[in-house]
Amino acid sequence: MKPPPSDTAPRLFDRSLLRARQARAARLGPATFLLDRIAEDLAERQGAVLRDFADGVDIGTPGDQVRTALAAGVRHVRAVVLPVSDTEALDVEPASIDLAVSALALHFVNDLPGTLAQIRRALKPDGLFLAAVIGGDTLTELRQSFAAAEAEVEGGLSPRVAPFADLRDLGGLLQRAGFALPVTDVDRIVVRYDHAFALMHDLRRMGATNVLNERRHAPSRRATMLRMAQVYAERFADADGRIRATFDIVWLSGWAPHDSQQKPLKPGSARMSLEEAVKRAGERKG
User: Fold this and answer.
1) How many domains is the chain built from?
2) Which of 16, 141, 270, 286 pairs with 196 at a CA distance of 20 to 30 A?
3) pTM beyond cutoff 0.70
């Protein structure tokens, strides 16, 4: 499948480094608690759709948890690797699948609009797309603690935590890609750790450490790291001394258009204005 032009997409992430970090995580013994939960939730969401899915693809998920969870409800699901380069196409033929899923992968894509457009074209009419990405206020505690420590110790800031899209932005991208009936929602997960370094160890075992192209390439100063951990404990610890780490999982769903689907009303076609509806509701309460 030929990808759409992506010359204008910003190159935020070093995707070659991301693959290397994910390979390292596999060697270390991956931390899979987020992926395990997402795989279970994704299978539940897919199972709530009252139809059969024969051919599906799992796009970029770093593990086989999703495919295992979907095995009971989908006849065949194969893994598709996200290309390192945004000029490469996904290994999926147009209109060849009726289900596309992805977990903890698409937030590291540089050209997300182009990737979503490819997924949309790969679906058969009335095919379903389900994905979970990191978004919102994920790792806001770590971001704030690093910012405070670097400003104090080094007199400046460097990119430490990737920027994450919010619900409105992602919903707009689904519409832009041509999905029908797009829906986004967020699941906030708060994980507690003994200290900031335990969190960073888990991020390393997730393959989710800093892969920003604009990251600082020199090793972090020991003083900065120690001050970051101290700030984290001062600002984001519970009464028992353990710190909190926020992960916002943004869920995306959309359908390849089909004539059987509900259509939104055309502007101006409503039989009752909003003003009239509010007035009548008030009259009923009276």
Assistant:
1) 1
2) 16
3) yes
pLDDT tens, residue by residue, 244-258? 999 999 999 999 998
Residues 6 or more apart whose CB falls under 8 angstroms from that of 193 comprise 199, 202, 242, 243, 245
Backbone angles phi, psi at 40, to 5 degrees: -65, -45
Determine contact, residues 122/97, Cβ cutoff 8 Å: yes
Residue 102: closest CA among 116, 88, 91, 114:
116
Contact 260, 135 (CB under 8 A): no
* Beta carbons of 104 and 61 less than 8 angstroms apart: yes
Cβ pair 106, 60 in contact under 8 A: yes
Residue 170 has pLDDT above 50, yes or no: yes
- CB-based burial label for 145 (10 Å; 0-12, 13-18, 19+): buried
Q: What angle do CA 221, 17, 153 make, to 5 degrees?
A: 15
Range of the domain at 85: 15-285
**What pLDDT is attached to residue 14?**
85
pLDDT band at 124 (very low <50, low <70, confident <90, very high): very high
Res 27 pLDDT > 80: yes
Residue 155 sits in a domain of what CATH number? 3.40.50.150
User: Is 80 exceeded by the pLDDT of residue 163?
Assistant: no
Do β-strands 243-255 and 123-135 pair in parallel, antiparallel, or remain unpaired?
antiparallel
